[in-house]
Amino acid sequence: MTAVKHMKWWGWGNEGVGFHHEDKPGFAPFVLQAVGLDLLTATRAGEPSFADLKVGKSKATAAFVKQLAAIVGAEHVSTDDMLRVIHTYGKSLRDLVRIRGNQIQRSPDVVVYPADEAQVQAIVDAAVAADAVIIPFGGGSNIGGSLEPHRGEKRVVISLDLGRLREVVAIDAESGLARIQAGAQGPDLEAQLNAKGWTIGHFPDSFTHSTVGGWVATRSSGMQSDKYGDIADICRGLRMVRPGGTLVLRPLPSTSSGPSVREMILGSEGRLGVITEVTVQVHRVPEKRNIYAYFFPNWAAGIEAMREISESDATPSITRISDARETGFTLATSKERHGFSKFTAETVLPALMKRKGWNLDDICISFIGYEGGTAHAKRQKKLTDAIVKKHGGMGVGEGPGILYDQKKFDTPYLRDFLLDMGAAGDVSETAAPWSRLIDVHKNVYAAAQKAYDEIGVKGWIMSHLSHSYHSGACLYFTFAFVFKNDPLGEYNIVKNAIQQAFVDTDATISHHHGVGREHSPWLAEDISPEGVAVMQALFDGADPGSNFNPGKIIDAGY
Amino acid sequence: MTAVKHMKWWGWGNEGVGFHHEDKPGFAPFVLQAVGLDLLTATRAGEPSFADLKVGKSKATAAFVKQLAAIVGAEHVSTDDMLRVIHTYGKSLRDLVRIRGNQIQRSPDVVVYPADEAQVQAIVDAAVAADAVIIPFGGGSNIGGSLEPHRGEKRVVISLDLGRLREVVAIDAESGLARIQAGAQGPDLEAQLNAKGWTIGHFPDSFTHSTVGGWVATRSSGMQSDKYGDIADICRGLRMVRPGGTLVLRPLPSTSSGPSVREMILGSEGRLGVITEVTVQVHRVPEKRNIYAYFFPNWAAGIEAMREISESDATPSITRISDARETGFTLATSKERHGFSKFTAETVLPALMKRKGWNLDDICISFIGYEGGTAHAKRQKKLTDAIVKKHGGMGVGEGPGILYDQKKFDTPYLRDFLLDMGAAGDVSETAAPWSRLIDVHKNVYAAAQKAYDEIGVKGWIMSHLSHSYHSGACLYFTFAFVFKNDPLGEYNIVKNAIQQAFVDTDATISHHHGVGREHSPWLAEDISPEGVAVMQALFDGADPGSNFNPGKIIDAGY
């Protein structure tokens, strides 16, 4: 049995770890008010039973499994039901609802764990020769529906798990470049880099369970992207196994060698081949890394401040502001404070805000990060503080920023907790030009409310801005409601309404979660029908047999 | 007759403008020493005679011309020989040698000047229906061989000139985005932007005669790319006419909507359709914009300083350093100095350098630019100066920097002057990781020398580094020699040797000139055969009839 460790088959993260709110006294009242769910009386569902799960029989013949075993060794290929289930879905809300609801339409037939690129090449060649389907699998954290086999797939489906390829192969210290195997998860690679004084600077929410190959395959973005760039910037070279040979893009700072093949592979979600290695930019661990918290009197003032920061000479590493609702949520879900900290948060600050004439229901919390040399970080803060002040905001120091940093990666556990209680909690994110952000926010809220009304539930939605660029930013929405009768149907009503509001307001279908099957229906509205035609031409030409993760991103004709 | 103005049919730039060296006393001795050409005794060829030029008969039928005239108006379609010749080539050295040598293999059959996107759509649809070939034409400044019709092309070839689409359509001031028609040349669009306080910050050497559509089609980069990015960063959205419909990419700061169609169009050199509009990032004209000059004791010290600047907290707008040979050229081709300036340049500086123990044959001149608010520009300079000093360099003030800025766009005229004298002068540029730059430089010099030896001429080569990135930079080579017997054959020997040295030393075939036909032979060595296969799949699928600029970037199978 292979030594690759997986997340829970039915939810996020490691076995035995989960969300709890015993130390967050404001949480239960908040949930009651937001979605009408009383955590104190609600019954919590237990862990689903694997024994009850209906899993289809593997279509892989013994001969084919033997062929794969000859490549990777018998212990690294499996048709075991548990492994097949683990490789059926990612961790989207739809995935979790289906796995909890015993709805597995189509599992992979066989899971294979190659040790190196040569084995990946052999698997790919064998698979294509046998007209099998290959779905690359990294950490399994995907929330776009990129991992599930097509429900009508009649061919053998291989889940190709990169979990054994997790080394930082080499660091070019002069160029700030690191060659990393595609299956390395965030903590794997960051630890190997940190040991030599480097950081990748890429910290998506999924960091603890996602891989560098997965980041590239879905165009990921991390919370310090303002400084380090999105993965599309960070990825300078890569290797991808294709039928009969490996595509090699040597690391380059920039090039004008035609349409960017690198950018065709970024975001390709397994449709062009299997990424085995990525060369990324790495940076010396900075001398200073501070995250400061600020408050703004309202959303519009905060957005305008973020815009002005992006246009200024200041270069913070993080610019993030929560709207009034998310600010309320953040304050409610904080751990209980004591002593001076409690006095400051609950007495001094509100009094100060009231004296400024702020409406406490409108206030927005913001986190801004500064990295680099001590003098540089200090200067960035000074430049930024002046802009914050101009827009009526005020700094409240580093304490809450540190808190933000620490709890960052725990959020996905909350979703499982809510599902245990019969409620949906999920996210949709987008990006748009600065001039459209206020409208995107307004229209998404209206669309979500309309969806809740249609279902007949009390729903919740909140948002923050993060990832600032010269011409715009990402808006990240979190929504929640208690299921009424039909979890998937009701979820779709809300999720679809939000996605439609994105494309109707000049915003994209996703800033950093990819397309998969979840966002595919809006692709033509995002990049125009001719844009889809060009992308389809690429997929059809590069994978004429539809062997590589077919039906993802574009479902047409499959 | 259409009102679109073109460059000289036989050379660079405007009629009546050319390079002269009367005010540069060091130029003639320099040329004599470098390539053995005595400008004082050499005979200068006159302007070639158009009447002598052999131009093939247009294959366009009267009916087809009439059909195009019905779309754009009779005065905007032409089969005139002069216009067909102007649209046959770009301005590469091979183009200039061939046009001077009366070697026109295949001219476009008809030149058409649409007024707007609807007319472009009608032309494209008519062309594809008639199985004609469409070659989009911007300013005609291309030096990659991207504009010439394939010599064996049997179908009617249309040169689709975007010269009438040159407006800045709209500016979104809040987002820093400007919609610009594809045919707008640098000075057109910059003037329109400047009038409203904006700049695009994109200043390639070809600026005065190239278009925003051309920049996108070839992945251009301008001299301030360290601050403003390459055109791939600057271009946020675009419109491209394809058969039956227009591909529309709305401006977005970032997106994860699958493989980037925007990045497929960037660098596509007309192979996917006709770009009609580009939405670019624009910036407020900065308060300060300074270019300072520095000297380094040698090339290695200068490169290391540039690398350290790129890794530091400093964010200059330009980082450029010439090697010792290019430094010699720069000093030799300066205008004659007088008075105090002469005394400083010719007496004080050399004395100072000698006192530092520098070998005057090794010194390298560097230009570093600072932009932004006054305090910001000052601080960038301070951070940079410290790094320069650490690597033994010294600043010599702003004067030479201003000079650099002013003469920047005049360089291409020098090439025509040398051709008049029977000599080649041309450029090849690349990009590589920092750790490979010294080797790239060394290997290119060795390869060029070997090529000169093979031909049996005294050749010249010089280089500078520009466009710094986190992980590497661009190296730009300029080479010259006097033709012996066979200009094109001898040029190819040198050019090919340089390009081969690039790919053999982990460098790319071009940083910002594109591929066209000139660099196509090395594409597989640059992006691997599988990379070419994926790109070919895109071209084949998106243009099954090979109607769009066929044979460019990848020539295979055409």
Automatic annotation (TrEMBL), chains A, B:
Q: Per its UniProt record, what SUPFAM superfamilies does this chain match?
A: FAD-binding/transporter-associated domain-like, FAD-linked oxidases, C-terminal domain
Q: Which UniProt keywords apply?
A: FAD, Flavoprotein, Oxidoreductase
**InterPro entries (UniProt xref):** Alkyl-DHAP_Synthase (IPR025650), FAD-bd_oxidored_4_C (IPR004113), FAD-bd_PCMH (IPR016166), FAD-bd_PCMH-like_sf (IPR036318), FAD-bd_PCMH_sub1 (IPR016167), FAD-bd_PCMH_sub2 (IPR016169), FAD-linked_Oxase-like_C (IPR016164), Oxid_FAD_bind_N (IPR006094)
Domain named FAD-binding PCMH-type: residues: 104-285
Q: Which family does it belong to?
A: Belongs to the FAD-binding oxidoreductase/transferase type 4 family.
Matches recorded under PANTHER family? ALKYLDIHYDROXYACETONEPHOSPHATE SYNTHASE, PEROXISOMAL
Q: Which protein are we looking at?
A: FAD-binding oxidoreductase
What species was this sequence derived from?
A: Antiquaquibacter soli
